[in-house]
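Fold sample X.
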Amino acid sequence: MAVQKSRVTPSRRGQRRSHDALTAKQLSTDPTSGEIHLRHHITADGYYRGKKVITTKSSAVQEDLSVAPAAFDAAG
């Protein structure tokens, strides 16, 4: 088993642990949707820096719902 060469003082231990503190996440607000998100990440709606970069499932479902009633009226 390993044995330490000498006892580590509380101040030395504190100096070693000085960089271990947790920091708060940096959050941003999207200018288009106003949604809060992590910096340099897209929002849950698929926006990055005010532009739509990907289509999400929620937006695709909303588009389908807006088209579906018109298709149903024509068919039926």
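Fold sample Y, listed below.
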Amino acid sequence: RIEIIGSAKSEAGVTTSLVSKKKRKRNDRSKGDRKPSKPRGKTDRRSDRKTRKTSTRRPKSFQPPRGKRLKAKRKNRKNFINALPELHRPLAKEVMSGSIPKLRQKLKLMDLPDGFDEPILAFAEELTRGIKSAEWLDKAEAINENIGSIDLQDFRSVVAASSNFAKSPEAISLKEKLEAGLKIRIEKELEEWIKIIKDALDEGKVVRALNFSSRPPKAGTQLPEEISKELVQQASAALNSEASPERWGIVAEAVAFSPIRLKVTPISLPSRIDEEFGKILKKHSDRFPGITTLTKE
């Protein structure tokens, strides 16, 4: 909890201190008082899990391999806290573990005189900005150490937040370095992305090509025209009467989430159609107009 040190009548010199709550003792029972566990029978849920059939369907949404996830150290945040006066650290830790709204609620419950909480909240907001800036610097330094392998999504998020938290000369310099590094990474991954799709098409792996086409390194990136045409051709050809319902459904699902979904024209439906296949058609018909056109014929 938060403890106010000093007279409640004073308008200045407010100091906050956090006093930890006493832990409630557990009323542990002795082993002899415990109820005996029930014997597990044939209906044991854990044993039932082993008998369940494993689904052979692929995940609903394809996710390409991600880069190294961001794991920032807390060096700068720790230094920021340690540089504060001893009496200010409890408030900083309170802000880190909660938020300004939660702190405001706690102060209200303390029934302080009118306006007594304002300097505390103002200082807490100042501490929050300092903590957030230190945390950003920790993340930025971690990315700088792994600039060629860090996950691109994490990379983008840290660069996007730099305008709010990169204020010191050191942070601004690092921000500029990361912005340049991000541009190089995106260009490199775009080249790799196109190569993966092209290689998949050359090997006849149309589902792999479709899946990767739906996850460009940069949102809104269009495929080169030559690759796009080949992808449309192979996807259309794969949707024929000789394909099994399972295979037809997998290709159709990949098409439905690809950037060429409006251009693919299935040759025909599978020769064998079951209820499950009908559900797949219905599920993806809105995103894949070629399905609707085919079922109306």
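Sample Y note: The two ends are 71 Å apart (CA to CA).
Also: Strands lie at 2-5, 15-18.
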